[in-house]
Amino acid sequence: MAYAQNTTVTADKSRAEIERTLQRYGADQFMYGWDDARAMIMFRMGGRQIKFLLPMPDKNSREFTHTPGRGQKRTESQAYTEWEKACRQKWRALALVIKAKLEAVESGIAIFEDEFMANIILPNGKTVSDFMLPQIQSAYDTGNMPKLLNFDG
């Protein structure tokens, strides 16, 4: 069962909560946007720019357009309600993740860069994750360490 699967908190309220949380922990910039497939938040904190892409459910997915048991077609309104419920869950989960990461940093459990490393935007506009995932896969595929990975310390 997914976290906040039955939440009634709207996506807008979760996004606003994320923004307030970021401000409370010291972010000095925030932006938000979306398209049919995903939502995005970006913020700046401690001189680092951070980006989260939140994959959004497909409105046309059978899980929304049909009932789970008998597979009966839902009305457009029913399908929208189910899709909106899935969107609310995604936003609640993102709010939880960001808050947990910030609290881990605030509590001294972790450092900011470790908690947000995959989401840090590099000077070329890509995230650390965009940059590193192909190199990690290559290392596992070939057994050779990429030149830019250094496990000496």
Q: What features would you describe in this structure?
A:
This protein is an alpha+beta fold and 153 residues long. It folds into two domains: 11-121, no CATH class; 124-153, no CATH class. Helices cover 45% and strands 14% of the residues. The chain has a three-stranded antiparallel sheet, covered by helices on one side. Helix 1 (11-24) runs parallel beside helix 3 (76-106). The longest helix is centred in the middle third of the chain and has 31 residues, at 76-106. It starts with 10 loop residues before the first helix and ends in an 11-residue tail after the last helix. The mean pLDDT is 93.
Q: Strand-and-helix sequence, N→C?
A: HEEEHHHH
What is the residue-mean pLDDT, rounded to a whole number? 93
Strand order across the largest sheet: 1-2-3
The total of beta strands comes to: 3
Overall structural class, as computed from helix and strand content, comes to alpha+beta
Radius of gyration, CA atoms, in whole angstroms = 19 Å
Beta-strand content: 5-15%
Question: Number of DSSP helices?
Answer: 5
Largest β sheet strand count, sense and barrel closure: 3 strands, antiparallel
Helix content: 40-55%
Runs in which pLDDT lies below 50 for 5 or more consecutive residues are none
Distance between the termini: 39 Å
Number of self-contained structural domains: 2
The general outline is globular
